[in-house]
Design a protein that fits this description.
Elements lengths: L16 E6 L2 E6 H4 L13 E7 L1 E2 L7 E7 L2 E6 L12 E6 L21 E5 L7 E5 L10 E6 L4 E7 L3
Antiparallel strand pairs: 1-2, 3-5, 4-11, 5-6, 6-9, 7-8, 7-10, 10-11
Length: about 160
C-alpha cells in the first residue's frame, strides 16, 4: 500500500509533522499531537530505568549487570543476558542491602552477611543469562544501597552491585 502525504514544511518547528501508522491506515499529524492519546484511549506507560550497574565479584567470579525499571507502575529487576555467577552454589537468592558497600563489614572468602541485614527479593532463577523479577511494593528501594547474589544456605555472597541511577 502506498500512502501519499501532503508536502511537509521544509523546517521542523513548532508545527512539526509526524507520520502515524494505525493498522493499515496512515495519517500525517502534528508531532505534538502524536504524543497525546486519542479520545477515549489511554497510552501505555513507557518503561523508565531507576537504577543500573555491573556486578562485582565477592566469593565467586561474576559477569554482567542489572537494571531496575518501572513499567505500568510495577518495578522490575532485570539481570543482563551476559549475567553469570557460580553455577555450583546452592540456594542462591537476590537480596537488597541497605549499604552501598555491603562487603565492607564482612570477611573473605565467603563475605557472610549479618542476619537480618538484607531483604530477600527472590530465589535466583538461573546462574546465568537474562532474567526478570518483580519487586513488590513492600520493598522500599530508597532504603537500600546495593543488590547482591547471595547463597543463603552457606551465608556466602557471590556478587554485589551498588544501586545507582
Amino acid at each position: 500500500m502506498v500512502v501519499k502525504t501532503p508536502s511537509l514544511p521544509s523546517t521542523l518547528a513548532a508545527g512539526a509533522m509526524a507520520l502515524v501508522l494505525l493498522g493499515t491506515a496512515a495519517a500525517v499529524v502534528r508531532a505534538a499531537d502524536a504524543a497525546k492519546p486519542a479520545p477515549g484511549k489511554t497510552m501505555l506507560p513507557v518503561a523508565a530505568a531507576m537504577a543500573k550497574g555491573s556486578f562485582r565479584q565477592a566469593e565467586a567470579p561474576v559477569s554482567g549487570g542489572f537494571k531496575i525499571r518501572t513499567e505500568g507502575g510495577t518495578r522490575i529487576l532485570e539481570l543482563s543476558s551476559d549475567f553469570r555467577t557460580n553455577d555450583m552454589a546452592p540456594d542462591l537468592k537476590i537480596v537488597f542491602s541497605p549499604s552501598a558497600t555491603p562487603l565492607a563489614m564482612s570477611k573473605p572468602p565467603a563475605y557472610p552477611l549479618k542476619p537480618g541485614s538484607t531483604t530477600i527479593l527472590a530465589p535466583l532463577k538461573s546462574s546465568s543469562g537474562a532474567q526478570s523479577y518483580t519487586i513488590p511494593a513492600s520493598i522500599d528501594l530508597s532504603r537500600h544501597g546495593s543488590v547482591l547474589i547471595w547463597c543463603q544456605k552457606f551465608n556466602a555472597t557471590m556478587a554485589w552491585a551498588p544501586l545507582k541511577a
